[in-house]
Amino acid sequence: MRRKNNSTAAEKKHGKKRNWMVLGSILVVAGTIAAWIAWSNSTFEETFYTMESSKIEEPVRIILLADLHQASFGTGNEELIARVGALKPDAILLAGDVINKNAPDWDYAVNLCRGLTEIAPVYYGMGNHENEVLYGQDLNKEFLEAAADTLGDSKEDFVPLLRDGQVWNTLKDTGVQLLQNESTVVDIKGNSVKIGGVSTNLSSFWPYSGEFIYQFAEEDNQDFKILISHRPEPVKAYISDYAVDLVVSGHNHGGIVRIPGVGGLVSEAEGLFPTYDDGWFEWDRMTLVISRGLGGHGLIPRVFNKPELIIVDIN
Questions:
Q1: pTM higher than 0.70, yes or no?
Q2: Distance between CA atoms of 90 and 64, rounded to whole angstroms?
Q3: 80 and 19 share a domain?
Q4: What are phi and psi of 258, to 5 degrees?
Q5: Are 56 and 224 spatial neighbours (Cβ–Cβ below 8 Å)?
Q6: Which helix (H) or strand (E) covers residue 112, if one does?
Q7: φ/ψ bin of 69: left (φ > 0), alpha (ψ from -120 to 50), beta (otherwise)
Q8: pLDDT tens, 219-254?
Q9: Other C-beta atoms within 10 Å of 297: how many?
Q10: Domain residues for 250?
């Protein structure tokens, strides 16, 4: 008759217990990390920049919001709006992708714009998510070439391509200035400031924004010029030598996952370890600031990459 080996049975029992403990530890660590990621993405940090310009006599404060992707900070974004108000900006810039293209919530965008316009004038440059909903396609070269007959001679005026102008008009009714290949000159505390917006991509930047960009840069040189360009890559590739005082961008979400001491992990345009994922860049006649954005979309969460609100003080 075979006897049970009590020692072996005890070892197996101990081994199973150890495995359950290891699994439990892994689940606790994973849960802690997930909770930390969720918490870190539910709040935002502030980045302050200062620049000097001979065109500015009275100091001007600009606040930049980019890539919200329908993220909410408090009910109805009340925490975000309250903080923007407390910072007392002279102008607020929206650098695109306020909504998500796959499930766009225009009420979200409208309510945000209404809240912000009660604080200061708001200037809204479209992102690729707005474009894909408003026009049915991103404003790439192939799409715009196919629409040449509709555009006619005004190849930089995309209004005829709107699928439904109601959303566009509703956004305008909030009091924001929508800037799509156009600019406006405004008086801010006695300073003449020219603010423009462009949202074509690398493929369509020429010729579908070229004339606007050239005129924006080369005319009215007494004005301090701010350009909203959702994507930073066309700016670096094509106009970094143009006379534009400040360009504000987003789009790359800070590289999504940020590696401490290294920077962003990946961007759509540059791939791994992008240069233009966030930060401050200067050339001879232009300064570019890239926001890490306030929201996210897709399956990969922001890691070591808190949502960012940017404040630029111009003296």
A1: yes
A2: 11
A3: no
A4: -105, 135
A5: yes
A6: helix 106-117
A7: left
A8: 999 999 999 999 999 999 999 999 999 999 999 999
A9: 18
A10: 46-314
